[in-house]
Amino acid sequence: KVGLLHLFIKHTSAGLSINENADPDVRIDMESIFNHLIKEREPYYQHTLEGDDDMPAHAKSSIIGTSVTIPLTNGKLNLGTWQGIYLCEFRDYGGNRRIVATISGE
Question: Residue 8's domain is classified under what CATH number?
Answer without folding.
Answer: 2.60.120.460
